[in-house]
Amino acid sequence: GRLVESGGGLVQPGGSLRLSCVASGFAFGGYIMSWHRQAPGAERELVANITSAAGRTNYADSVKGRFTISRNNAKNTVYLQMNSLKPEDTGVYYCRAPSLRLQGQGTQVTVSS
User: Fold this and answer.
1) pLDDT of 2-31, one tens digit each?
2) For 9, 27, 32, 109, which has the most beta carbons within 10 A of its beta carbon?
3) How are beta strands 45-50 and 57-59 bridged, if at all?
């Protein structure tokens, strides 16, 4: 299987970005998907995850109310909509299929004025 993230970039505080992760090589619709991030000098942390069929979501406290995870099983894609971005959201964002131990290459998000 393979995961490919896109959508990162440089944004000012208060701005928005939408990350996408396209999956291939496995039955995407049957798996929980998650987004993680790693800030400079920090450990990687879970940002959000979403179940397969019911689409139940879970968020880190630091992003609740600002970020939304969603998926389109027909397009084998999971998204992370990020609003009201803060400098502390800066980091490399990774898409994962945890039960398959699959992870993408990451996409850089930088929040700075």
Assistant:
1) 999 999 999 999 999 999 999 999 999 999
2) 109
3) antiparallel
